[in-house]
Fold each of these.
Amino acid sequence: MKYVIRSIKYLLFLCVLDVALVWLMSFDDALRTVDFVTLLREQLSSESGPWLIVAFVALAAFYPRFGFMRRRVEGCNIAKDEVRIMNAMHTYGFKVVGREGDVLRFRKEGFVGRLMLMFEDEIVVRATEGGVELSGLRRTVARVAYQLECYMQNSRYEE
């Protein structure tokens, strides 16, 4: 069910983006005589209009597959390296919203930040054997995992 909801969110995001681009096109001097609704209607009724719709639906259908990921950070312990995990999350604007044993849940701070991530802003940090696993939106997990790996490498020089 989560997969379908994510797909629908992304489809709506693509549609809003397309409408915004057509609206911006309506301010072009060459298209000044044509209003926004006519431009949108022409875009969808042209030969490439149905292909645009098919492309949006296909992208939305596969987005949950390639838009989310899991990443392991070796040598990190949730209890021992909690400060490093918190600092890595804070660097990218995330705050703790829940803790259940060896699982930490983080959310983006602020409404605008959450909106930019389409409210798919949750990063889950789980303790695994030999490290931790981060899961969530691909770009945020990749950034936070890299930052956490840097903190873990720098921890060698602390003692």
Amino acid sequence: MNDLEKRSFRSFLGLYIISSFLFIAFIGFWYYTAQKHALENETYYKLQHMADMKAGDIVMAHMTEAGLRELIVPDDIKLALIDTKGKVVQGELIESFTQKGTGYFEINGYNVFVSDAPKEHLGIAYVVTQSNSLLLELKTLQNTVLTLIIGSSIIMVIIAWVLSKLFMRPIRQKVEQIERFINDVTHELNTPITALTMATSQALKQKSYTQKTFKNISISTKQLYDIYSSLTYLNFSNSNEESAVIDIADSLQKSIVYYEPLCESKRITVDAELEEHIITIPEAQLQLLFGNLIGNAIKYSPRGTTITLRLKEGVFSIKDQGIGIDHDKQKDIFKRFKRGTEYSGGFGVGLNIVKSICDEYGIEIELDSVPNKGTEFKLRFP
């Protein structure tokens, strides 16, 4: 990955991890708070229930004059009875406990419930229930929540890494396409620029201008203009151009004349049979449409072959005797930056532009190609 991709990857990964961690931490805090509240209520009601049961036994023993039976309490609860003089007559109190009246207290990690329900029956003023189970349960809950947060965070980091890779994949593909496109455009520009430089340098040295020199300059200039037109369409394809009523045959004839020098340089013959057909379309886009098709036919045709152009009943066909397109590549040939072959350069936008113009103006396009035998495109105009 280049520096830009690395920064994008780190930014996405960091943002995902931070936001996910905050979300997990919030969920953990909410769960801990809810469970803590539930445990506190459970402890309160458990202590209150044990105190009420013991108070009920005291009252019943006093009324029936029966002996006070010992109440069985859970191991995590300590119970004490305090008489009217403030002395413990049964059970035990936690250390440093000082009678503060009735109610629910927390002292040194213990939850204490003091009840005056005995109403001094049998001389018992208070029932005290005590437990430190809540503190232990909260520590266990904290450890559980912390473990879940750490475990979830680890899983989240792994998921974030995988998602970041998946997120970067199309970006990486697009960057590779752009890099390849720039390299291809640079290569395509190099050929006509080199030819122009050589032709003008030779003419200046000889101080004479031959027909061949002018032809080379003309061909190179047209190649540069074709590249410029394609790049302009890619950048400004959404701009509104005024449509005009155009005879397709006239537009095709202009394109044929335009590419005559390039055909002559490769000794390629153009066999054209054109009928009049009127369509409403911006002339620049129609020229770009035919220019890409004719230019490709010339580019991918061997020397001394023939390119056949036909326009009859609103159907235009262009057929060459070139290298053809492999069957498995034909489905992607109209996609931007896709090339059917590495033969003779190109940067993979010509047929994409053709398809875009056809889609915009309702022109049906068909492709028939056989490797090493040639390619035929058919356009059905509305």
Amino acid sequence: MNVPAVRLPFDESEASSIAGEIRELLVSGRLAMGEKTLAFEREFARFVGSRHAVAVGSGTQALELICRSLDLSGASVMIPDLTFMATAFAPVAAGAKVILVDVDLETLQMDPGDLEDKMRPDVRAVILVHLGGFISPRHAEIREIARKNGARFLEDAAHAHGSVIDGRPAGSLGDAAAFSFYATKVLPTGEGGMVATSDGELKDLMLKIRQHGQSRPGSNVHESFGLNFRPSEIHSVLGLNVLRRAERLISQRREAASRYDDLLSGSPFKIVHPAPGARPSYYKYPCLLPPEVPRDEFKVLLGRKHSLSLPGEVYATPLHSQPFWKKHGELLNGPRQGFPGSLAASRRQICLPVWPGIAREAQEEVVAALKETIGCF
């Protein structure tokens, strides 16, 4: 079956246009921190409904930059157990420890009850991950738990470019949000990241840290600790290109997701539905296998019978199971067991191809293969 797991949203015409812009950039001699990056920051802030945006080299850098700007060193940061390790590594790199919070199997999102149970006095930030581009239906409740305990409410929006809930875009719900433009993301530039915030003071701190602690870039005067989190002008060119087409690309993902909803209706596969009033970006289209079907065996059989490879899950290994903690358990300020929601989600979850422009016929082939394969269990 010739259905790619992921396909980049660049055709011949777009590639030619981008090549021309990069050629102009090379002739200009300005490859970093120029007009393209400023324009990308300005347009992205407008896109997500924040006052400011700060471009960086990756989504992980974006989250670390937020944590460093908030001075979370020595504090605890609460994150969901079902996410990519970068959500943990970013606060750890900024000197914090993490507390893992279980997720709700129905939504794959952070469980507010477990969050409240594990809250402790040294928690200074709660990071809500918009997993797969889905915003938690209980985001306001999670934000309130964070704020009543004196903690900042942050968004890991690496999957959520263009996601909306109750009329509010991802990136405008908390104190700051981190986005990724990695090659597989909703808006890909190969590498790159962005922080969105409406806090002007936080933005100013980020600009210093991004540029080795310089208040005036290029001055060689360092007023505070900083690192090199700078993006390149070439990545900003790519970012402006995909941003111009963002509404169309995201709309195509939503259309594909709606077709899967129809095709899977009445099947043994449990659809993960968005909250009422929410419009995910559908970075991923996750669904759950029946509890008795072993996911890894299912995927092997699917490949053997139909030559179909599915995209990676979000995620197959919950954070508490990662071997990293066996060597660095001192970086966890909470238990490494007792996560029934994330364990069930990680074991039962599969994700279907949902890239922009996927044809209905291809989706019908995918679903037919899924249904035929699950009949073998």
Amino acid sequence: MFRRFRAALLAAPLLTLLLSGCSGEPQNQPTVSPEDLTRFTPEPVFYSPLTGVEVADAATATKPVLAAMVENLPYSRPQSGLMDAGVVFEAIAEAGITRFVVLYQEAEPALIGPIRSARQYFIEWMHGFDAALARCGGSKEARQAMESGAYGVDLDEITNSASAYWRESAKEAPHNMYTDYAHLKALLDKRNKITSTFTPWPRQDGAPASNPTATVIDLDISYDEYLNHYEWDAASNTYLRWHGSEPHLDREQGQLHPAVVIGLRVAEWTVNEGDGNRQRITTSGSGSAYIFQNGTVTEATWIKDSSAEMLRFVDAAGADIPLNRGQVWITAVPNENAITWR
């Protein structure tokens, strides 16, 4: 449109001269003001690299990614800050008990927690996002990894960030440690962590399938209290999340409902690190995955070439699979456990 407008403006003086003959009479010439040009220049659009959601400006789209370890024992529920997470990784921490590493970019939650200790596989997943990690301790392997500085900015409460955490009286220790975005962002500023560099997942505008084939999902990660159960809501094109028969709630914002649910098949085993039995999960290499969005399922292959590389999801031809904009919830399911849908 702007090219046609500009061409018309340039042609106008010539047309006026031809119509006026050769009298040399001065003619009124059209002019182009800066306001005219602005009206024909589209406004830039910015998207969060983490969620694919449109954000207000370039500054928001380049904010650093912040990760936090959040507990999932039944008496730690309902948690805070889960609804605002752009990406959630869920895996067994020990004895069948699951835990989350939650990632934020554009969101600034007023409360996050309960905060718990890290495990190495959570660190490797979040490392691909060039994220800083909020945690309270960790397994021996995880502590060594974060303290080495090789996996990003460490915001551990125990060693260097006590001022950013507090305990809530309504719950018993150690299940009552909380933080918020403002305190953690202040720590990031002190460390000069002003952005995160990573390759975003390809995103798309989702639309409910006309013939949905995956409206109820069960991911058998461990036992009933941790069973991932989802029911598709066509109106919002999201998956309402449950733990077994109980809705999984964000304490401040209600039932969780990610836009995309991914079941990640992984090799998992137990070792003794010297401070107790710890889980091991394969995070690099490749494996099978199931992507649930729009009321359908796509069988995929997950690929992660190294700890520092992004986890990717590809189809049979090796092409990256676009994910709907919004929250992505990824559950690491042991290879021998069931992933079912109907």
